[in-house]
User: What shape does this take?
Amino acid sequence: MSKEIQKFQDPGLPEHVHRKSDVDPKAADRAERQVAILFVLSALSTFLAIYAYIFIKDDIFFFLPIMGSTNAHQLFLGLGMAFSLLFIGLGMAHWAKNLMPDTEVIAERHEFRSPDEDREDFVRTVKEQAGAAGLGRRSLIKRTLGLALGVSALTPIVLLRDLGPLPGKDLEKTSWKKGTRLVTDPGDRPIRPEDLEVGAVAQVLPELEPGKVRHLYDIAKDAVLLIRLRPSEFQLNPERLSWTHDGIIAFSKICSHMGCAVALYEQQTKHLLCPCHQSTFDVTRAAKVIFGPSARPLPQLAITVDAEGYLVAQQPFNEPVGPSYWERSS
Amino acid sequence: MKKVERIGGNVASYVDDRTGAAKWLRKNLTKVFPDHWSFMLGEIVLYSFIILLLSGTFLTFWFDPSQREVVYEGSYEPLQDIKMSAAYASTLHISFDVRGGLLMRQIHHWAALLFMAGMIAHLMRVFFTGAFRKPREANWLIGVGLVTLGIVEGFLGYSLPDDLLSGTGIRIAEAIIQALPVVGSYLAFFTFGGAFPGEAFIPRIYTVHVLLLPGAFLALITIHLMLVWYQKHTQYPGPGRTEKNVVGYPLMPVYMAKAGGFFFIVFGVTALLGAVASINPIWLYGPYNPGQISAGSQPDFYMGWLDGLVRMAPPIESYIFGYTISWNILIPGLIIPGILFTLMALYPFIESWMTGDKEEHHLLDRPRNNPNRTAIGAMSLSFILVVLINGGNDIIATNFHLTINQIMWFTRIGVIVIPPLVFVITKRICLSLQRADREKVLHGRETGRLVMLPHGEFVEIHEELTPAQKFTLTQHQQPKALLLPATDANGVLNPQGIKGKIRARFSQAHVEQVPAPTESEAEALEGGHH
Amino acid sequence: MEKMNSGIKKLSRYRRHRFAGPALLIVALITMGTTFQVASALPNSSKMETTAKSTLIEEGKRIFNLGCSTCHGLNLEGGGIAPALIGVGAASVDFQVGTGRMPLAEMSQQAMRKQPIYNEEETAALAAYVASLAPGPDIINEAQLTYERDGNTAEGGELFRTNCAMCHNFAGQGGALTQGKYAPTLMGVDAKYIYEAMITGPQSMPVFSDKTITPEEKLSIIKWVKAAENEPNLGGAALGRVGPVTEGLLVWTLGLGLLIGIAVWLTMKAK
Assistant: This one.
């Protein structure tokens, strides 16, 4: 019983089984014809693609199940191209499988490890070279080289300096100033409180000063959402309440999480939802975060009406709008 | 045939006269490649890359990478006279005013998704079969690098058309940059040439997308393939296949025909997708405007898991001495992905250290024969899948009548609970599969045919496996646990400290296997029967 | 008339009651109707219209009391589960009942669009009744829906993306809101109902006032929605027009699935 444990033995590569096409010349001829047919089909498909490109106008549509109303030009051009490629591939594969030799071949692997002698020689050489360069002994050279290499990486970094201006206080500022009118986006029409029913919203931007253009980077900070509730629905502290006007409350539309436009206002629950990461804000409680990843309420814009009865900002935003950044205090 | 052979001979002589490479070429043209469908996953990636280069070049002929404002006057009616960036306008031009342009755009985008999907599938194959083991660790590292670059490259491509969805993605990327401690707002301003979105970003990423990263891909893919070539491909275990050989078909002509044919097939399938299925209909999204947003704004799937992580993050920010640290962005956006990718890159070294396995391996593991690794892989996949589900929670909610809040909470808890569960279950499954293999080898395969014995008992006929099958199921090595030395030569207790303990613990888990049956056992069993 | 007057006298002690307002309104309307009837001796069209209208209101009241009052209250004052309907206007009733959202089939997160329960006349009667009690937005009639002529598709798209796409998605396919609520798809919705939804703000949807989005702009939005609805699938199967989620699913199933299938065939030994 002390016999050594014997694993199952490797019976070796199984004997090659001949394919039909190996033994039957007819089968081989048939395979050849099939390959040829695939190649011909490919050529025909190419012609279909070229035909579609030149002759099928791009305003012809027809109905197909699943796909719906389909553009004939796009479909036949694409199908022609797809099949011209597919049939070449299938033909080659069929050819390789049925007509090329299918006897499996064994190749030996060479061992990666060199013969001991060579290896020792190599290791010794490397050691000697390292020694000859004096890397071990001359630590001053080693350290100063390290310094030089490290410092040299600074040049390309410094060269990138002119990629853009320094942020300065830019992230804190928006175009809203005391007395800036709220105008509709799009349309640029000023708004009176009575224009909004209870339950209404309006997407607004600050009124453009004469001669100025509105850039996308302005909108990225200035976009504001106006919502009208019943004044009794607010649960705000007196200061924030004084920032509303007649039940109308204004929030920055730029999410305090990652800057998407938060404008999904649910009229019944008075919740604002950001479609990007689903932060949910309670409008009645100064956009307090009640769900999702955002850590801060949306900044509220203090509003009032001007002499002509149009809605205006009482003051600029009292905190930076949009996503957080290092220098942002609280 | 005669003529072909003569021409072939002439070509060979011509080449050798001018290069003297006869020996090298002969060796390499007859190089043997093993044949298995899972070895073609990497080919899918390589071919999609070539398709991406070709279709991408086509697109550059018309694409104008500029954020200069233009007024659209092309043939797509619903955007007539709308102000937009030149990048978006030129993408519309490619889609509607260049014949075949829309097809090429769709092929390009489908190929990009296929590139990433193929890469992930290939990575899974390599992981679960242990193909990353010595001597292939470097190729694993290159592979991880390619996946990482692929995600970046894909994201940049998704950003270039400057439609509403692209811009939303860029906005989120900007928020991540801006959230970096100390340097965040500076980096953001340098990246965008000023305040977001500025006019510099698209021209800049265009160069990165069409020159820098494809160049990096080319270099890395070349090294990746050269290493495969030089180290020879791994193979699945089976009769006649050993650590010292490689069994398959020679490069010329079989493998070349198959691989070449497969290139056309991959291109064909991509073109088919481009012909029948719409992808990224940018004309419906409209031009980017930071004040606009669409419900269900998602990234492509290879970024979806990141978006899912960001969505489920708890709302935490710290304010220290007047500075802000946004954990709700940093943890899901940078820290967790950083840890995941580092662990993934280091896995071959971690496994080798934990198991003490320093051997060369050219025969692949059947996943069940390495339950621990398979369970780790399944666990990681389940993590990614759970967060990916959260990345699409709004679409799932509307289609399956769930609420985003339910899905969010399910995945918030699931991301902690499910992966360990999947680990345990996968390991158990592997062990049962090993047990089933053992049964099969020792008692034969159940045929499902019942016979009645003379005394009335019913038995199922078991068919004995062939020697080849028996060998395939039992050839794997089963490692022994690393023992934790209790004292060293000087009598110091537990000389390896905590590291040694972790190592011994892992090694123990690693050797938890059903013993592979042996010939001796089978013989003993035979003896017992008769 | 005398009987009625004495009735009013009796009622006067209830004048501070919370239903006094609506009740008075009903009485006033009926009185007005009756007065007109008596005053005009000649049968003319206006009289006919008024008669028709009052019968419509009567009919609406009957339907309301039978089908709606359980939740919304006999005097439209609302209740624990249903909002008050005072001042919601005919447009709101037309939208809710005409699209089948009301009456509710079951208590759920939100009323779903379904086969209407009341026919057109009944809906009109209900609308007339509710509108007769307090003023509110009127039903949009076909003559107002001149979006084909007065709308501008591109401008509508711009407005849609700013005001609607965040909930209804970039192509009007709808999207998820919180706690299982959702913005429904706009595909296949009558222009009239889209318009009425904008002015009445049904359920979760806010109101879009005529001053912030003018009637012409509303027509433009409708024109764009209709253009999106009728837009053929320019690039092939639309995959629901919900963005990258379905695209990702397709590439893993059809794309990679097909290629793996072919790879399996390619590496199989020929017989």
